[in-house]
Amino acid sequence: MSFDSITFLFLFLPAVIILYFMAEALTALTGRLRMGRNTVLLIASLFFYAWGEPLYVLLLIASSMLAWGGGMLMHRWRGQRRGRIVMSATITLLIASLGVFKYLGFFIDTLNAVPCIQIPLTDLRLPIGISFFTFQILSYVIDLHRGTVSLQRNPLRLLLYVSLFPQLIAGPIVRYQTVERELTSRRFSATDVYEGTLRFIRGLAKKILIADNVARFSDAVYGVHTSCWVDPTIYDSVGTTALWVASLAYTMQIYFDFSGYSDMAIGLGRVFGFHFLENFNFPYISCSITEFWRRWHISLSGWFRDYVYIPLGGNRRGWYRQLLNIMVVWALTGLWHGASWNFVLWGMYYGVLLLIEKAWKRRPGWLLTFIIVDLGWVLFHITNFVELGCVLRRMFWWHPTDWLRLMATNSEVMLALPYLPIAFLFCFPLFTPVVESRRVSVRVLRSAVAVLALLLCYVYIVSSSFHPFIYFRF
Description:
It is a single chain. The protein is mostly helical and about 475 residues long. It has two domains: about 5-185, no CATH class; about 190-285 and about 365-474, no CATH class. It has 23 helices and no strands. Helix 14 (about 300-310) crosses helix 15 (about 320-335). The longest helix has about 35 residues, at about 190-220. The protein is globular, with a radius of gyration of 23 Å.
């Protein structure tokens, strides 16, 4: 079930909100049933996940119970060797689960490329959101070992933390310490409901009105569904300019798609009384690669910093060890995004760039940073190395674009072009003062704009084809 589906918007979400606030009202009136609202959210979250993953919801529950049981034993044997063994075993099992479902096929494919090796390929479908919920569970186990969070003795409450539907499928990666208190003692706030609703609508508009529309161009040029490289006639019409515009379109698409989902998750969380941390902070205004990764997918970069980079030694063990640590982190970051060599290449691309920045000790500036990031999304998007080489060669070796033939072959190209400048404009914090204003007149204006945006989204959802969120596959 997706946030931008008719089922979610018209059936699931209204039903959950009604039941949740009925439980909230009953708690306020009687002073009892304080777990009622958590029960509503837990049942709704498991149903939400089981809607698309009826079998793998058992994996979600089993992973959560593994962390709960491991946490209980770690707490019992705190400071003892047995406690450390339990922690290591719990982490190993969680990572092994992620490895089997996400990377086993990739590993076998890689081995089969070697002559004289032929291993039968096991077809395991990737559970939706496994990378996100596994990293959340790992954060709880590691932080419990470090003593930065308290033991959660209630297994259902820990399961609610892992499965909470607003952020379950595509993040942000919410650490246990962020919502530890709110799992038991959050309070109803009309302001949170209002601001959370506006945030959800903003994210929905990013996805439906911007991301899905600019995607038409990138899909048409080096497509997700029908590749233009298959037909030589179409291939010849796609020149350097078209490929650069396509890279820009995908750069816009992935930002508004992913940040839109994060906005919806943060907004829904706030409606239910949870305050998730921000996951994006206008990354395309960055003037260096370091700054970009402080603004893009903040929850993931922070996770790798705190749980991988710093434990490896960070920058405390000399320059050469720091270089090694950076490359290890970025190779893992690339692999986290997908079981394909292009993601490894993409991760190493950023690792090398960050090393160059640290050695150069200068900021490359906004334009160069944006171009570097734009090229990075080409590496990220195209998984086939032959096609990737073809695209990059034509991007840097001039070839004219036959726009008339391209538009005649695929009308989506012409329909998508007007959305590109709109998308580019909204990459900058031009409207932040309006969004953050507390003036009554501005709030009324924001509400009116939100209602209009919601109506437009409904029209697009009903009349357009479904576009899944990009990060669902990670």
